[in-house]
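Fold in tokens:
===
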Amino acid sequence: MGRAVREYTDPFALEVHQAIDIPPTGLQPSLPVLTVYVSRDHDRTLRRIVDEVIAGTSRMAILVGGSSTGKTRACWEAVQLLPDNWRLWHPIDPGRPEAALADLGRVGAHTVVWLNEAQHYLLTSPSDPGERITAGLRELLREPRRAPVLVLATIWPEYWARIAVTPPPGEPDPHAQARALCEGHEVPVPPSFTSRELAVTRGAAASDPRLASAVQYAEHGQITQYLAGGPALLRRYRAAPDAARALIEAAMDARRVGHGRVLPHSLLAAAVEGYLNEPQWDLLPADWFEQGLAYCTSPCGGTPGPLVRVRPRSTEPPAAEPAYRLADYLEQYGRRTRRVTRAPTALWNALIEHARPVDVTRIAQAAQTRGFLKVAMRLYANAVPAGDSTALCLGARLLRKAERYEEAITWYQRAAEAGAPSALRRAAGLMEAIGRGEEAIRWLRTRADPGGGG
């Protein structure tokens, strides 16, 4: 049954997740389809099992872990260790349980039985096909004349729990055969890399920019989720309904022009309309914003969706309003693909009204760089109540260029009061330039001796 293991040159045909795409560089114009592999603890367990089957013993390994934790890739790497005379059978046609039931009895020695997402084979509804498949696998593993065979399976923890937990006495046990098959053969796949594995990954990242990106941006050591989640996030973005796509692009542009990672609900709500044209706007349902937000916050391939709700910890003060964080991979994608795209007026207006105070000065500088001087000035003004000396100096410089000297002097003076030493000189110089030299001297003396002692 199946094909020779060396005939499988496309890992995606066996449902290994595609990794994120990194634009080629002059130093490395192309990358292999799979990232450099970093061996982890469960890989060492798989290697021992492979050694046993090469020695002639039939074995089973069922990798238990969440989505995109690297289960299928680990199985792929294990198969590469087998001799050339081994075959691999992946029962999927016309359906997974139907294919397994039809041909399981024909599996012979030196065969890998590939059961990715084993719940489709073992936890069928009704349970009868799954129990018959499980019984066939048990018979295959214990029959000497068909040895050696290797059964490689993957399953999510929630499905594994249905197999592993024994029902109370007197209640039906629909998965007894599956429990007898799998108990003792589970190989846990943790969601996060250990510190040692992360150190190895950093070393491997020198030859693979995809790993380098994962090391830099993956949170809590979840390297594989980041690598596998990128393509899923891109598919979610590219196939998004109009409202959801507009939300994602508003978040991309807000980050691109300097807003921090935490994006207030009010900011997105005010900006999103600028990303919808008239035909799109006219066809939106009444609850279009809620639908778009639900689409963006739904998990994606075992990883968070395009937008993640930010939840304050119990030790943090409650948030004034909901806030969201754009997925890192989509943020990078947006910076790369939208760098020459002009953000709509609605975004700038939303930033003026709703940007977090800590981000305002940075956004104002981005607006000024783009030539939106009125927007920049309004943003600088928003930072003034907090006594942001940088915003005061930058705003004063804009006012001076606009020949609004009196206002510029006031801003420089406030910046000096907020602790910007250079603002003293600039305010005094500008006062002297417009004929207020004596006033500038008095003001400087006041600043030098706030108590008025002379």
The longest strand covers residues 149-155.
